[in-house]
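Notes, p. 3: input format for complexes.
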Amino acid sequence: MLYRRLGRSGLKISALSFGAWVTFGKQIGDPVARDLMHAAYDAGVNFFDNAETYADGQAERVMGTILKASGWRRSSYLVSSKAYFGWEEDKPNQTGLSRKHLVEACHDALRRLQVDYLDLYYCHRPDPEVPIAETAHAMHDLIVQGKVLYWGTSEWSAAQIGEAQRLCTERHLHPPVVEQPQYNLLHRSRVEKEYASLYRTPTGLGTTIWSPLASGLLTGKYTAGVPADSRLGDPSLAWLRDLLLKDPSTPRKLAAVGALAEIARQLGTSLPRLAVAWCLANPNVSSVILGASRVAQLQENLGALDLVPQLTPELLAQIDRISAPVAA
Ligand code: NDP
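Output follows (328 residues plus NDP):
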């Protein structure tokens, strides 16, 4: 495993990490979740990603039970939660980034994950109804109380992150040090262009990127239809299938996936490995959060680490010519 600094913070994070979205407490049984976490940990993964909203809190409960039973030293792994979408009903203050919800969601996550502190705590989306100062003060207080070690954002604009960092510097608060954006061969602009200036500031910005395989599109498995035993074949995820497969840009994206699969074939590797390795090749990516419904998928994707040295500037330029014209 390769370990990278999380931005300019002192935290060391595995370049490949593992997340629970739509799988834990939902798509897969708890024994499979356990096998996946153990396979990841045994391969050197030290970061497990979660959120209050994943399976309405159940993903955190499943992960917490596995962590508790694992016998792993708390110092050997990082675990996160994210707040914003809520997990209960939809009453006022049960969602969002107010001090009230951030503190309550943190306490709920600590209880479900059965840990004393969260290593990373993310604001899962920006909240237009809460001043950034209120959010920043609440996150700072949770850090001072020892309930959170580092805080960050997910899918905030560069302007919003910059504003939070500026305000924290001015007020001597712990600043957000990490952002969790989508990043893959079909979705690039925010990580590569919008955030470019933030990586170079004194506070800096680590990134833990999500959906490196675009929910599986970048495995090639959706090129000839939707397999029943896949994420987009799950009836409860029809909204995601429609989002990804009914967009007018989908045919062009699937054609690009075919061309990328051909490059992988010529390299003697698989498309998922190539797609994950391409994310790792970006030095501004601190960690690529993998998702998997089976251990074999995880093992395959972990093999991407060995491929990175083969991604020469010429090969990256060739990949760019296919990906850049279709990527968001
Ligand atoms: P991916 O884009 O890598 O999709 C993972 C899914 O693709 C798997 O569950 C599996 O689905 C399929 N897959 C993975 N590897 C293979 C393979 N080798 N061959 C065939 N199919 C494969 O990642 P996720 O979308 O799961 O995102 C990763 C993590 O990022 C999440 O768990 C979560 O922690 C985080 N995240 C954060 C978000 C945010 O807003 N901050 C949003 C979304 C995710 P299947 O077998 O069911 O088809």
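Residues 182 and 210 are 5 Å apart (CA to CA).
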